[in-house]
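To assess whether the prediction recovers the assembly geometry, we first specified each molecular entity separately, as shown.
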Amino acid sequence: DTGVSQDPRHKITKRGQNVTFRCDPISEHNRLYWYRQTLGQGPEFLTYFQNEAQLEKSRLLSDRFSAERPKGSFSTLEIQRTEQGDSAMYLCASSILQGSYEQYFGPGTRLTVT
Amino acid sequence: SQQGEEDPQALSIQEGENATMNCSYKTSINNLQWYRQNSGRGLVHLILIRSNEREKHSGRLRVTLDTSKKSSSLLITASRAADTASYFCATDAPETSGSRLTFGEGTQLTVNP
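The predicted structure of the complete assembly is given in tokenized form:
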């Protein structure tokens, strides 16, 4: 399968714990995006990378959130000291740098904070 | 904050009927895209229309764009039960084109067999 993959698909954690999610984009895609989606809403942009550079971060991305893409391939999103309000689906997407604005989404990681 | 608003929020039709969903947005755009999301899954890109285009077709999909009204519509013809999903419009602004997409709240389409 050559689509975007995310791991894990589901994560249940207790409030205050740290969690880390991984995204593997389509191999030739330079851009990688993270979105958050709560029930009944559309996805909300969190951050994006062009190769290994993090070019934009949303104000939604508090200090407890950090994202990396160390070698311009896979990316990780870490949430420290999780809160119940962090419960959501975390979606990763990737796209080619030039010529196309279509974003290809992974299946998402559903986070439940208890 | 969400830029787009979809209308209706929910739509239920019979198989074979056409489904029309509308999207409005607030600021200037470079492109408008429509995505489909099956329950609990990721989003699938359906179609993209550029700001200088007025209509686009892809198979059973027809998208229109009216930049003067800041609105778009998605028409699915001859609907099938497999079309049951949530449909989202997404825009990117000229200054952030190729980066963030701003999604609407979606229309939940149910196609009854």
